[in-house]
Amino acid sequence: xxxxxxxxxxxxxxxxxxxxxxxxxxxxxxxxxxxxxxxxxxxxxxxxxxxxxxxxxxxxxxxxxxxxxxxxxxxxxxxxxxxxxxxxxxxxxxxxxxxxxxxxxxxxxxxxxxxxxxxxxxxxxxxxxxxxxxxxxxxxxxxxxxxxxxxxxxxxxxxxxxxxxxxxxxxxxxxxxxxxxxxxxxxxxxxxxxxxxxxxxxxxxxxxxxxxxxxxxxxxxxxxxxxxxxxxxxxxxxxxxxxxxxxxxxxxxxxxxxxxxxxxxxxxxxxxxxxxxxxxxxxxxxxxxxxxxxxxxxxxxxxxxxxxxxxxxxxxxxxxxxxxxxxxxxxxxxxxxxxxxxxxxxxxxxxxxxxxxxxxxxxxxxxxxxxxxxxxxxxxxxx
Length: 383
Description:
The chain has helices at residues 5-17, 60-69, 81-92, 105-115, 132-139, 157-163, 186-195, 255-262, 272-283, 285-308, 329-338, 361-371, and strands at residues 47-49, 99-102, 122-127, 143-148, 168-174, 201-205, 231-236, 249-252, 320-324, 341-343, 353-357. By secondary structure, the protein is an alpha/beta fold. The longest helix is centred in the last third of the chain and has 24 residues, at 285-308. It starts with a helix and ends in a 12-residue tail after the last helix.
């Protein structure tokens, strides 16, 4: 049975309200959420804490724009391409020829893997990290070299540099990193980039940029660019803006780099609804601030709950948390799945770590209820 347009609009209203082997060292729901739907009222009965989505959905102004845009879905949005490009460029105070948008930042990763293979057809990345680019690289015949993260779960830049040669086409740096939500210091990245061969391009994935906040060790390569045309920076509307389902991401780089990437871009990859809401989302600085603050509060609540159970999560700079369960991750994941709670997949070689996306208070209540059902959870305090 298909939903009617009225049902679809109603659902929008509800939503708006609401590698390398390595050895590693190492209550009550607030009244404000009384109307948060329980998992029993969800279509599939699942609590989704597995994909680092914004659990609260788009900002109210953006949700209004989405509703207004539904009348445009029968039209191809190609006439909006220039407007979207120019709006993103204006937001970042760069030239339109420095911007390339795509169907999610994941498509930008595919495009980069195709555009910058290098003479040796090699991609180097930290590990574990977001896997999409390595999958795309392998699909076009690139060799993928994965360098284990440091003991602090940052990118081991010296280790990566030791594997880079004149034939290395692309280095991928996810910062903050997924799945660990950790930072690699800006000054270290600048030094690293300066040592790369002239033929090597570095792609810095800033999908979780907004959640970092003020930090002595972090600065965006869009907000504070280097005078180096080898650097590509990517962002997404999927995280802080809550638009993962509408699929829009973009790259900011030199015009020469952007034109090289454009060759591999999927044609007609812009959807009609997101074309209408880009400007609204970018302009809603108050919505961003509230979303970031809510994430910070949710993170602190998660950390408090974890520490009550004598657990110490990795310090997070994103909208998800990773922590060591001291038990096989697959067993923990399946335990949660059996209780209709989805958490992140297994990330080898972090074989006892789980990744948990931050959800609403009601969803996190379900998470901790399910955690406390683990047969060894009460003994965990004595480990």
